[in-house]
Design brief:
Elements: H1 7-13, H2 24-52, H3 55-83, H4 97-125, H5 132-154, E1 170-173, E2 178-181, H6 193-222, H7 227-254, H8 264-272, E3 277-288, E4 291-300, H9 306-313, E5 319-328
Parallel strand pairs: 4-5
Antiparallel strand pairs: 1-2, 3-4
Helix pairs in contact: 2-3, 2-5, 3-4, 3-6, 4-6, 4-7, 5-6, 6-7
Region (Disordered): 166-189
Subcellular location: Membrane
Transmembrane segments: 31-55, 61-80, 100-118, 130-154, 198-218, 224-244
Length: 330
Amino acid sequence: MNAGIDKAAMNALEHDHVFLGADHARNERRIWLVILLTAVMMVAEIAAGTIYGSMALVADGWHMSTHASALLISALAYLFARRQAHNPRFTFGTGKLGDLAGFASAIILALIALLMAWESALRLSNPVPIGFAQAIAVAVIGLAVNLASAWLLAGGGNVAHGDHAHYGHDHSHGHHHGHHHHGHDRHGKAGDNNIRAAYLHVIADALTSVLAIAALTLGSLYGWSWLDPVMGIVGGLVIANWSWSLMKSSGGVLLDVVREGETLPREIRDAIETEEDRITDLHVWQVGPGHHAAIVAVVSSKPRDPAFYKGRLSALEELSHVTVEITHAA
């Protein structure tokens, strides 16, 4: 009869792969609130525009619908990532779903920017009469909604650089033995591209409203009707630039690119390498907001248990999943 592995020992070694950001639940709730706010405003504008025959109101209502759609992508990504967090088919968890949603939102943002610039260019070559007072009122209401949405999304969180993360777990193994440690909470430097995407959509809409208010006010005072489409082109270029930035950051995470200025690989080498121990292969990648995984191959003239090397890395709080492989130097 074979002596099986002790169940208690197995349970102690097993671990989950939940790499969601620390503010995942809060961000999800706030995005749903912003979607509700945007949808109510969108329906009100389209209805009022249809009743009162205002194309400005109708156009702004449909414009808000594109942002509401993009926000829905962010909200559904949070929902799916949370519900599937313990699904073993996601071998490194669902932490990257936010980056996938962020990348999709970046493409939508780019399309909105192109449409804005194209529509503005057409208006520049074929001017149309503008109802200044009504258009300014619409822009002011839109700005108020967007500022309220931006406040909701940014409240208490660091949108520019993302959320800190927790659920830290390390897993190390050698040739014949393994070690697992439930670590401290992990506080990472990498951002949550999903909440950043939602925030950029709201800010892009707010920028559009600010530029419209400025152009329409000056247009009504001095008769500069050409200023409105010019501001539309400027806004389109600014939003396109934001979109490109979001595309690069979220796409980089999806392709496991080490971010420019990321110090974690160097910190791992500094923590592990000595005269006896050398790292021959190192892979570091982001598995969720503030969570990184690493595979470290060590060649040592005096090899120790993997737990020893894991201990050297315990101060690096961004590491949520670590695999250590040890080879005896010939």
